[in-house]
Design goal:
Layout lengths: L1 H9 L6 H10 L2 H15 L4 E5 L1 E5 L27 H13 L4 E5 L8 H14 L3 E4 L2 H11 L3 H11 L1 E4 L9 H7 L6 H13 L3 E8 L5 H21 L4 E9 L16 H14 L5 E3 L2 H4 L1 H6 L7 E4 L6 H4 L8 H10 L3 E5 L7
Parallel strand pairs: 1-9, 1-10, 2-3, 3-4, 4-5, 5-6, 6-7, 7-8
Helix pairs in contact: 2-10, 2-11, 3-11, 6-7, 6-9, 9-10
């Protein structure tokens, strides 16, 4: 059975959820590496690996969703919470551009004290005045903005795009299964809330990223279910042929430090991460790119992921606050990133947030 499934993958045939679960549970890592690399090379030049120079900017850490896995947020009214000033944003933008950066990955908490105009003006400032690509706002934030604007998701996204929003990151997907989301983030809404925003973005022609945070009590079957809903959504996006759709998929293991889950859930191993990312590359046959999560896994495992289906090393992470709040913090500069990619046997190339060449 396993040999037949692997032969299907090597031949470029789509596998179903039952077959994916078989691979997850039983396939040797070496076989997954070969199958995932074959799938990777159908989408990308086999000898090249990309990365982006951008900055993860959290414009506010005030949030009323209270996810149990988050070590970053402060509650509304907490004096320790913040909203970045225009001057702080400008300084971060100037530093980013001076280092060859092209954009901001812009996310914050769900801050009930900020009006709709704040977000439009924030995007206009970064795009028009600072000349940065804005890869911005997680679906839960966009749902809040739709309520503030008293418009549909599509109309809200069109307003944001007119202001300068370039693309949408996939933050907040976690595991797109009701059972898990109710357990870890009951106020965030079920899978449909995340999927509805991404669907609306694709309908208006915006590019997005698919993500998964795993290792928080889900089963392997639930990971496969997560892959399945993303693949179905991408099928619909590609059928529209309007420029909308997921450009890439990135998965990372839950970081439990400084959360209520610390010590209660075993941290996924490097082998489990590599198995998960390889299955993602094999199953998500309509996603052009898969990112390595060296930020959570470290440089060596980040490099090794390039042998398990990844063609992209993600961001240089000129700034990162959320993962580091949970006690995990890996950083590299541009020279180090180039060395990491070259020493893994690939030619590095710098991309923008939608995989254009810089």
């Amino acid at each position: 059975m396993l040999a037949e499934i692997l032969e299907q993958v090597l031949a470029g045939k789509r596998i179903d959820t039952v077959e994916a679960l078989q691979l997850f549970e039983n396939a040797d890592l070496s076989d997954l590496a070969l199958a995932a690399t074959t799938a990777r090379n159908r989408h990308n030049a086999p000898d090249r690996v990309s990365y982006v120079v951008d900055r993860n900017v959290n414009y506010t850490d005030i949030c009323n969703v209270y996810c149990t896995f988050c070590a970053f947020y402060h509650r509304p009214g907490d004096s320790k919470g913040y909203v970045l000033t225009r001057e702080q944003l400008q300084k971060k933008a100037e530093e980013t551009k001076a280092l060859g950066g092209t954009g901001f990955l812009l996310q914050g908490g769900v801050n009930p004290d900020l009006p709709w105009d704040y977000y439009l003006n924030l995007v206009r400032f970064l795009h028009d005045e600072m000349g940065l690509w804005v890869h911005g706002f997680s679906p839960v934030e966009i749902h809040m903005m739709a309520k503030l604007s008293q418009q549909t998701l599509q109309a809200t996204l069109l307003d944001l795009r007119s202001a300068g929003l370039g693309s949408i990151p996939g933050g907040g997907a976690e595991i797109l299964v009701d059972r898990i989301r109710k357990k870890i983030a009951p106020l965030k809404g079920g899978p449909d809330q995340w999927l509805d925003v991404m669907e609306a973005a694709h309908e208006v022609g915006l590019a997005t990223t698919g993500t998964m945070m795993f290792g928080i009590g889900e089963t392997l079957a639930e990971r496969v279910e997560h892959f399945h809903v993303l693949r179905e959504q991408q099928d619909r996006a590609l059928a529209r042929a309007n420029g909308g759709g997921h450009t890439a998929f990135v998965a990372w293991p839950f970081q439990s430090g400084n959360t209520v889950w610390e010590g209660k859930i075993p941290k996924p191993t490097d082998a489990e991460y590599l198995r998960t990312i390889a299955i993602a590359r094999i199953f998500l046959d309509n996603f052009p790119h898969i990112q390595s999560s060296w930020v959570t896994m470290g440089r060596k495992t980040g490099q090794l992921a390039l042998q398990y289906g990844c063609d992209d090393m993600g961001s240089l992470m000129l700034e990162e606050n959320v993962v580091s709040a949970a006690g995990t913090c890996y950083t590299v500069n541009r020279d180090e990133m180039n060395r990491l990619i070259r020493s893994a046997g690939y030619a590095p190339w710098q991309r923008d947030n939608v995989y254009g060449v810089v």
